[in-house]
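=== RUN LOG ===
request id: a7f3
mode: sequence -> structure
chains: 1
length: 220
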Amino acid sequence: MFFADLAARSTGVAECDAALLARTLTGCAYQGATGWTIAARPDDAPEGADAWTLFDAGGRPRGPVAQAYTELSRELAGAVPVGMLRETPEIGSAPTAAIGFRPFIRGDEGILALWNNTGAQTDLVFEVRTPPLDVHTLSIGPRGVWRSYRGSFTFSPEARALSRPVLAVSLEPGEFRMLSMQLADPLVGWLSSVEPMPKIPRESAPASFGERWRERFPEN
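=== RESULT ===
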């Protein structure tokens, strides 16, 4: 069993502390941690490293940090890391990457964590090898902690214009986002790539979407 003992100095902004905690918990889970310990109150934390304490001195939950801890603990429970076959110095697992991402699988769910290390909004797409049936989204960042849910998934007009099985994501500066998707055909290699949003062709060809899908991922 691998337990990580976590503490950090505050950035001065609770929402930023929460986003950094989300990245750290995700990184620990991806490296095989089976749990983690975090100081409950400021007096329990190492001196000057109380950013991730879950309660204030009076025992009240510390807003975004406590929310992020609760939500990530739930999202990562039982999640199994899967390999990242395609990454670049700009988008991948390197600490210096502009965009970080980590993929997981849990039963019939594909889980993708993404975060923006830049100071600008970033538009991305990620390509899947099997279509999602629904999409849960958890966001932790400048706007706090929020969730959304798409109960009936269809590929977007952008995906059809590109004739590729991609989902679009737009990340604010410093934002962490986790998407959990029930997959039509669960497999370890469900994620094909994460990349910058490509230029959308002016003329789309929706009729070729299914053909291109079968061409890229032929049935065995």
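=== NOTES ===
The helical segments are 14-30, 63-76, 157-162, 209-216.
The longest strand covers residues 99-106.
=== END ===
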